[in-house]
Design a protein that fits this description.
About 15% of the residues lie in helices and about 35% in strands. It has about 170 residues and is mainly β.
């Protein structure tokens, strides 16, 4: 059994996303992220390539172009409304509000600010437009089971990096 990251190895990582300008930690994981290397696209290709050949205990810093992941920041996805038009349960910074367009397509918006008169929501991913670095620590590496290879990750769970990042909004 190889102790380096290569295709069809089950890998567990801890990671955080750091804003390059401020040094602030924008996202951390509450539990290790498990995936099957070369099978699951939970991580961007740029990150996956950097993990090839790494071993347990290695810590990597991988700059990530958020424009490639999320596209350009779209200011038309930022809306401000009068506070009386917004139900009280949504008047909290960081709250996710799901809205639908005329075609019935759902989109998540995050409350970014509010005061006594207005509330502002933003439909851009919170990492959009930022320069960030993923700091990853390799926790474990082992041969993946056939079932894990089929699923691309752990049999008892399927954490998705995009879901984790969405929660950071």
């Amino acid at each position: 059994m190889s102790d380096i990251i290569e295709n069809e190895k089950f890998v567990e990582l801890n990671y955080k996303v750091v804003d390059d300008k401020t040094g602030d930690v924008l996202v951390t994981v509450d539990y290790p992220l498990g995936y099957v290397h070369g099978v699951n696209d939970v991580l961007s290709e740029a990150v996956t390539k950097q993990l090839d050949g790494k071993k347990v205990g290695d810590v990597l810093e991988v700059p990530v172009d958020t424009t490639l992941l999320y596209g350009e920041r779209d200011e038309s996805l930022v809306f401000t409304d009068r506070i009386e038009n917004v139900p009280e349960e949504y008047r909290q910074v960081g709250m996710t509000i799901t809205m639908e367009n005329e075609q019935g397509e759902a989109k998540n918006f995050i409350v970014t600010r509010f005061d006594d008169q207005t509330l502002t929501v933003d439909g851009n991913n919170p990492l959009c437009g930022r320069e960030v670095t993923f700091v990853l620590e390799v926790l474990s590496i082992r041969d993946a089971t056939e079932q894990e290879i089929d699923l691309g990750g752990p049999v008892d769970g399927d954490p998705d990096l995009n879901d984790i990042l969405d929660r950071a909004k």
